[in-house]
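Morning!

This is the sequence you dropped in the shared folder:
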Amino acid sequence: MSTATDYKTGLLGWRLQAARELAFVGRQEELAVFNAALYGNGCSVLYVHGPGGIGKSALLRRFTQEAEAVGRPVVKLDGRMLPASVAAFEAEAGEVLRDDRAVLLIDAFEEIQSLEGWLRERFLPRVPMGALVVIAGRFPPEMQWQADPGWVGALKVITLRDLPAEETHALLDSCGVADELRESVLSFAGGHPLALLLAAAARNGARDAGTVLCHDAVSTLLDQMVGEVPSAAHQKALEICAHAYVTTEDLLRAFMPEQAGMLFRWLRRLPFVESSSLGLFPHDVVREGLEIDFRWRDPQGHAEMHERIHEHLYEKVHTVSDTDVVGAVGALLYLHRDEEASSAFYSARTEALVEEGFLRAGDLDRLCQVAAESDGEESAAAAVFWAQRQPEAFRAYRLVETGEPVAFFAWLTLSDPADEEIAADPVVASVWAHARATAPLRAGEHLAVGRIWGIPSCLRATPAMDLMAWRAVGNSLRSERMAWSYIAMRRPNQGIVECLRRYGLDEHTERPIVDGVRFTLFTHDWRAVPAQAWLERLSRVPVSVGQFPSAKLAVLSRAEFAEAIRQALRQMSRLDALAASPLTRTRLITERGGADPATTLRDLLRQVIDELGEDPRSVKFHRALSATFLNGAPTQEVAAERLGLPFTTYRRHLVAGIERVCAELWHLELYGTAQDQKARD
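The structure's back. Tokens below.
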């Protein structure tokens, strides 16, 4: 019986070992470091760290095989099974102190991290030369290791990261994942080994490329990578970190003002959270897992969090300095990403190759050179013309390493067509022609034209293009009274066209010719689709359901607006007629957010008429309007008779009152309410 049991145990162990060896791919650099140390040509202590599920235990199993293959005795410790005490550690690891050929492998070191100082100062110095110690845990080593000159050369630190693409596909090959299922697996797991294995198992079981990773697999992944969190506040901080572009203490303060600093420091120390100059962000797999889990278990809470983060970031776009606009816009637009467009949002979480700045002395010659090389001499002349005319509109994109400008972007603001500007730039001439023919500017409005020099049209995306796009969006969201915005591009490829369409820009049919090349104009009418409605269109999750219309707003001239007001006053008693008024599709009504636009219009007209009665100077206008439109007089003659006024006097008061109503509502259409204006200021 004993022999049979041993045989079965050996057989199962052999099968498990074979399966693990088959699933182990890559890590050649890490193996090379270990083997060098194994043969006495490297370090004495190898410290491997990385987030849960990244493959530390699998790597230690391979280290065990390598050491045993050359006859080295191996001592294996698992921090999850070992009390965090000096005595327990000494008892389990003592052999490495007595044998200069022993290899000590410590897994899950984060569970006994409290022993790190003792291990460094007391235990490891007693290890004989020739022995090798490998420490594997989630957290990087304390700074004291690097601060001590004695450990230079004796310690090697390796950060274990995701598998590269080739090794990722090799792992999927070993799991037998069908080709048609790989895209869905990779979209979730990337190069994270544990996530790949879980997603592969779920997809293979479902045999459906569209199947969402099962919640049991997500739960397993989060247990392994994240583990238990200390409190509900820590859980909320994790959820915010997973949903937001990058997380700052300022963002956490919007949710938990008293604990923001403590929670930010906690997030910063987590092994699966990385940092950039803009803030903290989690490993992609953790981000996706937390998002899937939160949406599944609390969809309402997830939607409320999305709304609060959006409100905070939208306000931030309007309040940050000009230098910080690009980062703020990137954070806001990340909330409106979709699966197709999410790959465009890569620059904000890493250190970009280029940085944005204003024009400097000497940049004019470089601008002329870049514009001529990318677009031609006529375009270069236009660039220099605008740089001299609106230097504050220009941004240069410089290589971080050298400071050399490689691209330029101008956001030209124009309120009146000037002959010299039209003559200098065919793009601007075409813009004015389009605006006049489609929906002319109204009093106090302006348009903007984005011009790009130095980005080859063959490129789908670059860090500089990300920064330019976010600069254009930021300028648009922060601008007051902007009617139109245009982006001009020379022969954009299909990838760029699709990207700009996702930003809600329409292709203009007329294409200006510069240097014999047709430019494409991408345009947006901010009066027809205001900022909030535009953002909602970018998102699969509405900013505020029902608040903003999906259809474009009506953009009326002042004469058209006044005629619509006169018509609406005559129809105040008929909601069905008011429902057909073009006013119901204007900013005047839609920004008030009522469920029924016709009722909102009627109530607004009544409100303006009533307010005229509060001013002694306009009481006579109020009385004429009330008698005619509010109190049901069948004719104007009857209204005059009820007021005890001569008909000509009544008519004069009525006409003046209608003009006052038109003027007041026109001001609201252009500028919003006093409260809205104060909020924007």
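Headline: The longest strand covers residues 405-414.

More detail when I'm at my desk.
O.
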